[in-house]
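Weekly puzzle thread! Below is a chain. First person to post its structure in token form gets bragging rights.
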Amino acid sequence: MTALTEAGGAAEAEVAAEEAGGTSAASRVAHPLDNPAYASLTGPHAHFGEWRGRVVRYPLDVSPWLALPDDMTAADWADLAALAGAGNEVPLLGTTVRPPDGWEPTFDVPGVQLVDDGVAAAPDPEAVLLGPDDVPEMLDLVARTEPGPFEPRTVELGTYLGIRRGGALVAMAGERLHPPGWTEISAVCTDPAHRGQGLGARLVLAVAHGIRARGETPFLHTSAQNPAIRLYESLGFRLRRTTAFRGARVPGQPSAGEKREDCSPCR
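Winning reply:
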């Protein structure tokens, strides 16, 4: 049994104990990582927020992540539908809420949230800072490696580091969600021709070093089936909780001339 399996069982047991004892999640003091997108968009990333009622999202060219209150009401779902547009697919990432009747589920991927528990963070002498001028290469690397959502303005969310070989960008990692006191490491990817050299691990440690230097704690999300979980655990991350990455389609059809949006990169 892996540490991930043991920790996952402990997390499930805690939830069961709360339900048996009548303690609801709402009655506990909220932790920023319980709803990290909401904590980000009402905290350090508030300047990115696009609001409709209590629902908030990043601009679509920054990130597909949107944030929902934990106690979603019918009015909140109506606001989400208005924000996203009829017939469009919306990502419900890292949240426990499920869409109501009439919303078509489009994907449901079990995930995990890992947190720093003794990561040996360190700068990397070969890592270079990536910025807006590097976005075309970053998008090309993401398209070839599929680490998860990465949009033309994702680089604005935080620090991104890369490693170049022969002038070409062959590996990168950076920062995404930013709840108060925490920063998510994301977009960890390596060109297939350069895998097996530990480049991704080195960049994770380098990005973690920058996060720690600000007095914050690194964390990350990934699919529960991702083989890289063992690598992250070996680097000093531990499971905090299980989660899910879901998608749903807003009821109705797009208006005439309106482009239908899909969030397949969220899968």
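Puzzle host: Confirmed. Bonus trivia for everyone else. Residues 5-28 have pLDDT under 50 and may be disordered.
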